[in-house]
Predict the 3D structure of the following.
Amino acid sequence: MAPRKSKKAEAAPKAEPNAYIAGAGTIVEQQVSETLKSNFMPYAMSVIISRAIPEIDGFKPSHRKLLYTMYTMNLLNGGTIKSANIVGRTMQLNPHGDAAIYDTMVRLSEGHAALLHPFVASKGSFGKAYSRDMQCAAARYTEAKLAPIAAELFADIDKDTVDFVDNYDATMKEPTLFPVTFPTVLVNANMGIAAGMASSICPFNLEEVCKTTIALIKDDEANIMDTLLAPDFPIGGQLLYDREAMEKIYETGRGGFKVRGVYNYDKSANCIEITEIPPTTTTEAIIEKVVELVKAKKITEINDIRDETDLRGLKIAIDLKRGTDPDKLMNRLFKLTPLQDTFSCNFNILIAASPKVMGVREILTEWIAFRFECIRRRVYFALDKAKRKLHLLKGLSKILLDIDKAIKIVRETEEEKDVVPNLMIGFGIDETQAEHVAEIKLRHLNREYILKRLKDIETLEQEIADMEETLNSKRKVNSIMVKELEEVIKKYAKPRKTAIIYDSVQDDVAEDVVVDESPVHLFFTRDGYFKKITPLSLRMSGEQKLKEGDELITEVEATNADDLLFFTNKCQVYKAKTADFADGKASLLGDYIPAKLGMEDGETTIAMVHTRDYKGTLLFVFENGRVSKVDLSAYATKTNRKKLIAAFSDKFTLHSIIALKEDAEVLLTSTNGRMLLLHSGALVTKTTRNNNGVAVMTQKKGQRIFATEIYVDGRLKKPHRYRTKTLPAAGSLPSAEEQAEQISLI
């Protein structure tokens, strides 16, 4: 029996066939790359072009919308107004919400102290860039206006110097760029993270930037390092100057440099007062790190640390224990805390809507080209205006010949619409000139007024000639640019805030870190695993755990103060401190050195050497029987370089590396069974690391060195058989009683 249908089911209308969506529920295969291209790329481009990356005028769109709104509100003059008012008006150009707009204003304000030359004069609490917890007050409590230097952003903006576009709802116009009179892009710091790229531009001193720009205008091959000394930060600090690193930043736009804090010692209170810190950190981060070090007993000279920042400025106070050397303590804090940090540069700027990483010279060259065009457009705007005025005055000059005739024409014309045509016919002038004459007030239709106006013709003609000459002369436009830059220097230049510490000064304040000389055992395997084990832990341990198929190739006693040299298959050596590695256990595999030291793809370790004083020599034994003797001091560096290239010769296949504290005998064994006892004193120590060495043990085709070891007395029954007076030598076959031992080695 069929189930009975409910009344509701019976009443429901049947769905029409065309009511269904065609293809609904169908799974369509699509390449991931195509999905990303169609869905993510438009968003990524929007973030890059419209949000995160600054343009050649030094501003992101959010900055530009805010500042232009304040300009249209006439906030260059008069007093401050409520920030909430400014934020609300800015939403006509920026629809991303009031919180984002206010955050932008805060960063641009002088109260926040994030910029060398703030564009917003502020009143109220705007927080501090150097403090994580010191937040700004709400927009309804604070007030703001444009700072005087903001006038340089809008100079001649109403004279067609830059393009304007519609805002998001096409009710207003906004500039695409500001016609800035100086390179703001390098004067104020700017950072942004886009999709797949970022920008990090450090600030430079305004006077140095302007002088460098002037030098490049006069000579595009000028040495910019002569005038642009180094970055300058609003918080101050001390920049540790590395000329090579600075040249790289100036040339490529990428790189980094170190900035450290500034302190003074109050002897009466036995207290260190830190008054300036690096721009990459905050007072809270520094205090937290110091407290962490004190709790871990890595620093024991501090009694108390506190934040004493007030209206007078930043200050971190550190109370010291009696007998503490403040300079030595600060050198340790520079190394262990953010009191010394690296500022990483990535000068990524939008040029014609395309992101481009550029060095300082290229940025200034682009800015000069941009400003050059702004000045030309301004001159052309003034030229066009002057030509139109001259045209009207020339029409007026014809009226002067017979004023009565002009009055008669106007008086006798029956209809108003015929006044202009009749004047055109009567005096042979065009419509524009006739309109101008027709609009002259009756009281001005006298000879004296018209003569005064006509005196301007000669002046205008001279001005027009000068402007046309300027438009046709690159030199004249450049001279205008130079003059404007000199005016900016005169008005707004400030002394450097960040001191530059050169190498000679750095040596005087070298870090004095307590050296841990406790003994440790070092283990290094063929596959590149490293373990540092304390003697106590080693005594309590069992068998060493190794990766399957791996084996120990180096096992030595050392101290935590030793340096470690890891040689790789790419003829490079990576340097590390024993203290950099945590104490391990025999039951663990240990640290994988290629990953730990950040080696290149495909790069593997082949040997480890430890040293404290870089005394002794290294023997590089190649498979073809050549041996290179290099003084270990060749691998010592004055700076803390972590990698050295050309560590040994890449012309031959390396078999092994032998470290010797003093000259000794080394036993070489070839695949043909012959052995040779080589005294390292017979080899000349080379001054270059990657020398080719000398031939020691001759090898026939298909033969190679397969074993090396430092010779120990008693290892061979008749060692004299394997010694030779001349090199190279073929070596000797082992005696019958030594044959078995050699076979066991194979």
